[in-house]
Structure prediction request, 279 residues.
Amino acid sequence: MPRAGLDLESTTWVGELAADSPARDAAAARLHTLLLRVTRAESARRKTTIPARGHDELDDLCVQAANDALLGILRKLPEFRGDARFTTWACKFAIYEISTRLRRHAWRQRQVTTDESIWETLPDSAPPALAVLQGRETLARLQRAVREELTDRQRQVFQAAVLEEVPIDVLAERMNSTRGAIYKILHDARTKLRRALGRGEPQEERP
Amino acid sequence: MKHDSLERLLGLPGPDPGCEAGFAQLEHYCDAVRRGEPVERRFPDLVRHIRNCAACREDTEGLLAALEKLEE
Prediction:
């Protein structure tokens, strides 16, 4: 049950969306309109990240994202504690749904390199993340640490996510995994590499 | 090598809640940002995760932009 002192707008949403509310269908339709507005605005904001050949499908993605966000919100409504505004809580589901779809859509026809061939492009055509490395010595230390310190899976994820800048939810889809699991692998790989490069950990970390 | 370059490659050390736990706090973080509260002090681990995770950073920016747009 939401906490006492919830703002009026949030109280109204929660009350009308409750399973036993006679206003539930109308409130769900209003919420869907709001979610669709959010997914369309986010799609428009990030349109330049999508190849032009994929623009025709963007509105379908927005509708799918709003539909899935609404289902998620109605399912999770009993978990809403009212510590944040209802619209902020609801909109995060819409953003999550459209954001994941946009990243996957942008990478739909792009190949993901998960082997060591990405290092061979150096130094003449370094990917953006590696272009920041100044000097071959630092680059060589990093490459050696990646080869010697990381497991195969950590190496694949680090090279793709950091060097090739493949979004982790795209990687999750290609590697039959989840975004959280891929991030955990990346996090562990970075922890090992920081240690190998002499940049110690100030305290114990979790995932 | 510049610090921000290293951060981009190796991430920031320290507690990092990960994507799922970060998502659970996202509405609190965004409401706090919009109220002008010192989020680096209130949500230090989440702030670190947002700096370490490009997808969560993009999602957070999207949510803040959406909330701003809804108020127009």
Summary: Chain A touches chain B through 53 residues (CB under 8 Å).
